[in-house]
Design a protein that fits this description.
By secondary structure, this protein is mainly α. 48% of the residues lie in helices and 9% in strands.
Length: 206
C-alpha cells in the first residue's frame, strides 16, 4: 500500500493535481483496479481513458512487483502448509491479475493459488463482496466453506459481506482502522503464526 501511495502522488503531481487527504475516503463502486482508475478519471477530470490510466499505473509499479515486493513474514510457510494439506487457495485481490502474478511469482508462491479473482475483472471492488464471491465460485465452494485472510478494513468488510469466516491480520498501513477491523473480523491476528493457529481451531488439518 505504501508503494501505491507513492504512485498516486507521482501520478497526480505530474498532472498538476494536489493530492487530497480524503483521496480514498469515498470510492462509490469499491476499490478494484478498474474502479479506482475510473474514480481518478472522474474526480480529477483526467483526459486518459480508464484503460490508459491502469496501464500507466502498471508501468510505474511493474518493476517493484517483479523484483522487490516482499511477502509478510510467515505467509509463504502458511501457503506451503495449506498446499501440502491439499487445501485449495484462492486469491481475491483488488490489484490487477498481472501485477499479482508478477509479485507472487517473484516470491515463489504463485503456483499455490488455484484461482485468481482480481480487480481488473468486471466486478465491484472491496468493500463489496463480489471479488470474494467470484473467488468462491471459481473454487466451486460455498462462501461459508471459505476462510478469508485480510489486512485492510475494506477487505475485511468485503469478506464478511460474502459470508466467509474472516481472519484479520495486523498491517502497519491499516493502523488507523485497526479498531474497526477488530470489530468487523471474526478474529484479529498479529502475525501469520496466529493465523495458522486460528485456522487449526477451525479443525483444518494442517
Amino acid at each position: 500500500m505504501g508503494l501505491w501511495r507513492q504512485v498516486d502522488e507521482e501520478f497526480l503531481t505530474s498532472r498538476g493535481v494536489a493530492v487530497p487527504e480524503d483521496l480514498f475516503d469515498n470510492l462509490p463502486q469499491g476499490n478494484s483496479f478498474i474502479q479506482t482508475a475510473q474514480y481518478f478519471r472522474d474526480r480529477f477530470g483526467l483526459g486518459e481513458s480508464v484503460e490508459e490510466i491502469m496501464q500507466i499505473w502498471t508501468n510505474l509499479v511493474a518493476e517493484h512487483y517483479s523484483n522487490s515486493i516482499q511477502l509478510k513474514a510467515g505467509a509463504k510457510q502458511l501457503l506451503e502448509l495449506l498446499s501440502q494439506a491439499h487445501i485449495q487457495i484462492g486469491l481475491a485481490t483488488s490489484n490487477s491479475y498481472e501485477l499479482a502474478r508478477k509479485a507472487l511469482t517473484f516470491n515463489g508462491v504463485w503456483q499455490h493459488f488455484a484461482c485468481v479473482s482480481s480487480g481488473d475483472m468486471e466486478l465491484r471492488g472491496k468493500p463489496f463482496p463480489d471479488i470474494f464471491l467470484n473467488c468462491a465460485r471459481l473454487l466451486k465452494l460455498e462462501s461459508s466453506q471459505c476462510v478469508a485472510i485480510e489486512d485492510t478494513l475494506s477487505g475485511v468488510q468485503a469478506a464478511q459481506a460474502a459470508g466467509m469466516h474472516t481472519l484479520a491480520i495486523y498491517d502497519e498501513d491499516s493502523i488507523r482502522h485497526h479498531e474497526q477491523i477488530r470489530t468487523v473480523a471474526d478474529t484479529f491476528c498479529q502475525n501469520y503464526k496466529e493465523v495458522l493457529q486460528e485456522i487449526r481451531k477451525l479443525r483444518v488439518e494442517i
